[in-house]
Amino acid sequence: MDDKKFGLYAGIGMVVCVFLPLVSVSGFSMGSLFDIVKADIATEATLIVAACIGSAVFAYKDNGQYARICSGVVLAGVMYWVSQLPGGFGSIFDVAGVGLYALIASSVAGVYFNK
Q: pLDDT tens, position by position, for the chain (115 residues)?
C-alpha cells in the first residue's frame, strides 16, 4: 500500500473524529467537534472541521500538498485549543476523550503520509 492511501485514510479518520467525543470526565463522554460547531459557528472548531474535510477531499484528489497543509492546520488548531485550557497541556490527559486522541493521531499521520 502506498503513502497516498494512508494519507486518504488519515483524512477520512479526521472526518470521523468530528463526531467522536473530545472530552471524557469520570467515564462520561461529551462534546464532539460537531456539537461545538452546532452551538456556535464562530469558533476555532469550525476551522478545524473545515480543515478535516479539506484534508480528506484533497487527499482523494491526489493533491498532497494541500492535504498536508490542511492536516497541519488541524494539528495546530487542536494544539491551540488544548493550550487554552485552564491547566494547559498537563491537564489534557485527565479529560481527553477518544476523539481527541484519534484526531491528533490522524492529523499527524496526514502530515506525514500526504506527499
A: 666 789 999 999 999 999 998 887 776 777 888 888 888 877 788 899 999 999 999 999 999 899 999 999 999 998 888 887 776 666 677 778 888 899 999 999 999 998 8
pTM above 0.70, yes or no: yes
Domain hosting residue 45, numbered range: 3-22+31-113
15, three cell numbers? 472526518
Spatial CA neighbour of 69 closest among 105, 8, 115, 5:
115
Number of domains in the chain: 1
SS (H, E, C) the chain: CCHHHHHHHHHHHHHHHCCCEEEEECCEEEEEHHHHHHHCCCCHHHHHHHHHHHHHHHHHCCCHHHHHHHHHHHHHHHHHHHHCCCCHHHCHHHHECHHHHHHHHHHHHHHHHCC
| Residue 85, all three cell numbers | 485550557
d(CA 35, CA 76): 20
